[in-house]
What we know:
This protein has 331 residues and is α+β, with helices and mostly antiparallel strands.
Amino acid sequence: MQDLSSFNSFGLHVHAQNLVRICSEADLKNCPSDHALILGRGSDILLTDDYEGTVLVNCISSLDIRHEGDRWIVRSGGGMELDSLIETLIARNIPGLENLSAIPGTVGAAPIQNVGAYGAEVGEHIVKIEYFDLDRRCFGSLSHDECEFGYRTSFFKKHPELRYFVTAVTFSLAEKFVSRLTYKGLAGEALDTPYKVREKVIALRRSKLPDPAQIGNAGSFFKNPEVSEDKAADLRRSWPDMPVYPQSDGTVKLAAGWLIDKAGCRGITHGRAGTWENQALVIVNRGGARPHEIVALAKYVQMEVMNTFGISLEPEVRIYGKTGEISWDQI
Length: 331
Ligand SMILES: Cc1cc2nc3c(=O)[nH]c(=O)nc-3n(C[C@H](O)[C@H](O)[C@H](O)COP(=O)(O)OP(=O)(O)OC[C@H]3O[C@@H](n4cnc5c(N)ncnc54)[C@H](O)[C@@H]3O)c2cc1C
């Protein structure tokens, strides 16, 4: 049995039958694939039990950068840390991904939930994703349009039955730096280089989010809910200071962290699990927590938000049981 505590950012002590590091595309051709769980750095998952199968850890870390017209074409191995890639690009004066600085995890996992932060999403810059199909045992690729990127979602999340292992991601990045500083915290700042944006983003993240190396967590536990305009207007009558973010499709996005806070769940502790004092959306392992304690706390938070606002929060983290992904309602 393989201890997975350093392969999930909650730091939960669960085990897998077997663990295989995938360091090249060739490794995939012979890897065990029955009930295989694909992992990057485990920073967006909740393992609720010992895993009765093989964990495949993406360690493919190639990097190829070329210049084409007025753009940079960057092909990164899926096992590279997303933040190391961003750091390397900025050191080479290649802008575009700076707002996504310091998001934990791998390049290969980033498109799965279309990671986003500070007004940017990774999918905007992706032109191609290469993968290995664990069932058909062949390589393939998807174009930007085929990836179906949306808010914290993509083709991969919409089709969990397809077991595609992302081997490489290709980005197309404009040569000229165009700052994106609309997000609260960046607006009004004199951030005229990608380096300055990166430094600011890192400082903001450090001030709000716990470092998983010190306190186990998986970032935002729940997604920001999207509600109808009528529901948002209704809520605003009772909660005039509630932040609302109207979307282009007519829905309104609400801040899950704000809802959790106002439902009285910021900084609470149940057993050895809790919500983070500086950002209620983050559930933390206060030390030695077992999976059921994280689940119980998250269910409690979900219930309190439902009771206070009539809104059902949906987990952003992916949840796995003994043999594969399980739905939140199953536990
Ligand atoms: C402190 C903290 C802050 C965070 N902040 C943000 C944030 O600002 N924005 C944001 O969007 N996310 C954030 N996250 C969530 C997390 O960083 C991202 O979801 C990241 O992309 C996860 O990468 P990973 O390599 O750890 O993936 P894992 O957790 O290992 O895997 C996540 C999912 O992707 C699948 N997967 C992983 N690699 C592959 C692959 N190569 N091929 C196919 N499927 C794969 C897994 O099976 C799993 O379902 C945060 C997490 C933490 C701990």
